[in-house]
Design a protein that fits this description.
This protein is an alpha/beta fold. The chain has helices spanning about 5-15, 35-45, 85-110, 135-145, 160-165, 195-205; strands at about 25-30, 50-55, 55-60, 65-70, 75-80, 120-125, 150-155, 155-160, 170-175, 175-180. It contains 6 helices and 10 strands.
């Protein structure tokens, strides 16, 4: 099974999230950048606010797919207690990712208030879940931003990653899972890159 594009995937995902429709405490958060078109479709169908969640995974220098932590808006920093690195090993990664996070956050928050999840249900939405590292970082950041409930919602995901994320999120919604997953792009006919300008355009519609 493949989705035509991220909009179709968002429609399929929204059909599994109808219990969150028309609720004043719910916010749809698209992971920048690929998750934003999916989140925009979900937000429109559920009639809930849309915002962008800029999260940067802090990858181990010699194995970037392994996250030793994550950073998010408002100076939030979450470290993985299972991975121990020396300060001099972490510092350059944190500097680099902080600069990129600030760049994106400035771009996408023009005219918008700082992201505040206090007491809210955060629907964290991406276009797919392969390793789950970035999604796990997003869940940690949402909790650090005081979300009352964190729901991870993706159209498609690797079964092992979905199981791992179910241990840290309050709920994981994933209509399509696969044991032998491959790349997220293989589940889309159209998986073109989402530029910053498209993210900004989607946010101005809200």
């Amino acid at each position: 099974m493949a989705f035509r594009d991220r909009q179709e995937a968002g429609a399929a995902l929204a059909a599994r999230l109808t219990g969150y429709a028309d609720r004043a405490d719910v916010i749809a958060l698209g992971l920048v950048r690929g998750g934003m078109p999916v989140a925009a479709e979900v937000a429109g169908r559920l009639r809930v606010p849309l915002d962008a969640l800029v999260v940067r995974k802090l990858g181990v220098p010699w194995s970037p797919e392994v996250a030793f932590g994550a950073i998010g808006p408002g100076g939030v920093q979450v470290l993985n207690p299972e991975i121990r690195l020396e300060p001099h090993e972490m510092a350059p990664v944190i500097r680099h990712e902080t600069a990129e996070l600030r760049r994106r956050d400035r771009l996408f928050r023009i005219g918008r208030e700082p992201l505040d999840l206090t007491g809210r249900v955060a629907l964290i939405i991406d276009d797919g879940l392969a390793t789950g590292a970035t999604a796990g970082a997003a869940v940690a950041v949402a909790r650090a931003l005081s979300a009352a409930r964190v729901v991870l919602a993706v159209p498609v995901g690797a079964t092992p990653a979905v199981r791992r994320l179910a241990l840290v999120a309050d709920e994981v919604v994933c209509p399509l899972t696969a044991d032998y997953f491959g790349a997220v792009s293989s589940y889309y006919d159209d998986f073109r890159q989402v530029p910053d300008t498209e993210v900004a355009r989607l946010l101005t519609r809200t």
